[in-house]
Amino acid sequence: MSRRDRAARGATEAAPPPRPDEATPLGNGDGRRAGEGPVVSLSGVRKTYGRGAGAVHALRDLSLDFTRGSFTAVMGPSGAGKSTFLHCAAGLDRPDAGTVVLGGTDLASLNEVELTMLRRERVGFVFQAYNLMSALTVADNITLPLMLADRRPDPAWLDRVVAQVGLSDRLGHRPSELSGGQQQRVAIARALAPRPEVVFADEPTGALDTRTAKQVLQLLRDVVDSTGQTVVMVTHDPVAASYAHRVVFLADGRYAEEMTRATPELIAERMTRLGEW
Ligand SMILES: Nc1ncnc2c1ncn2[C@@H]1O[C@H](COP(=O)(O)OP(=O)(O)OP(=O)(O)O)[C@@H](O)[C@H]1O
Fold it and tell me: What is the DSSP letter of 229?
C-alpha cells in the first residue's frame, strides 16, 4: 500500500484529532510557559551534499522557530529535507551555513564534545526503532541517559513521566516482555527523563499499528500540553501530524507553508499539492 493510500485509510479511521483550543494551557506543568521565545531557532540554514554538478541542496536557506511548549509536525515530499533538517536542528549534523540556536546556545559555538554533551543533556530523541537495551529493565532504560551524563535523576519528575506514559507497573520488566506500543512509551519516557529542552521524534509511530499509534501520538500531545515540553516530529503520516499544534511543510529544502488545527484530510490534501510523498 502506498503512503498516500495508508494516509487516506488512516484518515478515515482516525478519531478527531485534539484541538489546540481544547488543550490545557501550555506549559502549566513545570513553571515554564509558552510564548517565551523559540526553544529552537534555525536561521538561513543550508546543507549541501556532494560538489559540483552532483551537488544536492538538501536545505536551502531554511529559517524556522519552535516555541517552547509546542508540538510541531514537520512534513514534506520525499527528499524535501526533513531528515537533514532534524539532524541539523538536533546537533547531529552541522549545516554548511546559517545558525541553529537551541535553548539559547548557538550550536556552531560548540566543539564535538560539547555538542555531544548538549545532545545528551538537553535534547531527547524518539525514533521509529525503539533502541532499548534488551538486558536492562524498563526503569534502567529510562534512566540510562541520566546515568551516561552522570546526572542524578529528579525523582518527582521521573515519577511524573513514568505515570504519564503508563509504565508504573512495568518498571521491572525487560523490553522483550512489552508490546511495541509499550516499548515506544519506554523510549518516550527515556527521552523525557533528563527534562530536555526539546524532544525530536522521527516517524515515532512508523512501526506501530493504527490503534497503538494513536495512543502514542495522544501521549506525546498530552506530555506537551501538561508539562510544557517541546516536541518536533518528522512524519509522513497526516494522521500523526494532525495531533500536533502546528504542521510545517518543507519542499525542495525550503520552508513551504504551515497549518494549525489541521485535520488529516487537509494535511493530506496539502501534501498532495506539494508533490510525490
Ligand atoms: N548523506 C547524503 N549524501 C548525499 N545526499 C544526501 C545525503 N543525505 C540526504 N541526501 C539528499 O538530500 C536530499 C534531502 O534528503 P532528506 O533525507 O533530508 O529528505 P527527506 O525529506 O527526509 O526524505 P524522505 O521523506 O524520503 O525520508 C535528498 O535529495 C537526499 O537524496
Answer: -
Q: Would the CB of 49 count as within 6 Å of ligand 1?
A: yes
Cα separation of 38 and 74, whole Å? 16
ipTM computed for the complex: 0.97
Pocket test for ligand 1, best of 2, 46, 83 (most atoms within 8 A of CB): 83
Q: Element (H or E) spanning 112, and its range?
A: helix 112-122
Decide: 82 in ligand 1 pocket, CB within 6 A.
yes
Q: In the CATH hierarchy, which fold is given to the domain comprising 3-37+68-90+110-274?
A: Rossmann fold (3.40.50)
This prediction's pTM: 0.87
Ligand 1 atom with the smallest distance to the CA of 234 is 22
Q: Tens digits of per-residue pLDDT, 234-269?
A: 999 999 999 999 999 999 999 999 999 899 999 999
Q: Give 57-71 pLDDT, tens digit per residue.
A: 999 999 999 999 999
Q: How many A from CA of 83 to the centre of ligand 1?
A: 7
